[in-house]
Give the backbone structure.
Amino acid sequence: MQIDQGELGRRVRAARESAGVSQDAARRAIDVSQPTYSRIESGDRPLRGDELVRLADCFGVRAAVITGLPEVRERARFAARTDGDHCSMAVMRERLYAYLELDSYLTDHGI
């Protein structure tokens, strides 16, 4: 499923505004110029995978909120072990969801 860049730009802007983050703070989070960031929000420049992750962190949302892809938790089936790690299963599930969301986005963009 290919993501429409115009729609992705609108989603970035909506997530940023919803989080109360300025364009300047968002552009600094991904280390791009103001014109480049404006091109991302307008859909004229693709959003790279690493930028997606940093913007999601900056806005306090999951990558799926920005991409519009269904959240992985709705379709993931998995088995996990802690192998001595003291993380709770809930924490491990959240890490897995974040990884799978990013993997889906990168795969869709041929990365």
The chain is about 60% helix and 0% strand. Helices lie at 5-19, 23-29, 34-42, 49-59, 63-67, 89-108. The mean pLDDT is 83.
